[in-house]
Amino acid sequence: MDWSPLEKVNGFCRKMAQMLAIASDDAYCKDGIESVRERWDCEVDLIDNKGTQAIVIHGPCLIIAFRGTEPDDTKDWLSDLNVRKTEIEGGCYLHEGFLSSYRLIAARIIEICRNTDKDIFLTGHSLGGALANVAMWDLETHRSIKIKRSYTFGAPRVFGRRASRRVRNQLNGRQFRVVNRNDIVPRVPSLLRFQHTGAVAYINRRNQIQINPGFFYVAIDRILGYRANIIRSHFMKYYRQGTDSE
Predict the structure, then answer these.
(1) Which residue from 8, 110, 129, 167 has the least number of CB within 10 angstroms?
(2) Domain with 212 in it: what CATH number?
(3) CB of 102 within 8 A of CB of 138?
(4) Could you give the CA distance from residue 133 to residue 26 in angstroms, rounded to a whole number?
(5) What would the pLDDT profile of 161-192 be if each residue is shown by its tens digit?
(6) What total of structural domains would you count in the chain?
(7) Ranges 46-50, 89-93, 225-229: which has the least confidence
């Protein structure tokens, strides 16, 4: 595995997105953890507690990739569908389901991050992207652990209004959320209850990436490219294709 894309630290980097998309896909361990270790040619830990999973890739940098929703995993769906807010401090609210899932593996994540001097990257697809966002908030805000970059793919909204403002101010320029055209998941839960953080890297109908496109650009692109439907656009396969294209 070529780790050089993670050396770039300014702004959005497509090659970095490609690499972290591979890690996000590998978090599903579809062919088993040994195949993941072979691909990365380094130590890879699997963290699993009551269905919440992440892989930790110990290369020249440390990549923590959170697993997304498994279609046949009831606990994953319950986390996704639990849209209650929970207050974590001073009027800052997070999505209760995502926070509860993260807490199942938080102790191990914190331990690993505290015992490394490597740059730390967080990533994940779908539910995994939500968990990566919660982890970045927790590690930066409460554990004084610096995160180099976070790239999420098809992540839903996580933060209440006040929490989202704090995250934007603290993590400005280090957090990117990749959205594949008609993917419905980044549009939930309701904007009235939760908000996104991080710069948007929008994959348009031509597999070109636009950074922080305007509302009308996205609306027109989604209409013109509607054959990429709201379900298919969410699959990790198409996020891999979108970031791999030049």
Answers:
(1) 8
(2) 3.40.50.1820
(3) yes
(4) 18
(5) 999 998 888 888 899 999 998 898 999 888 77
(6) 1
(7) 225-229
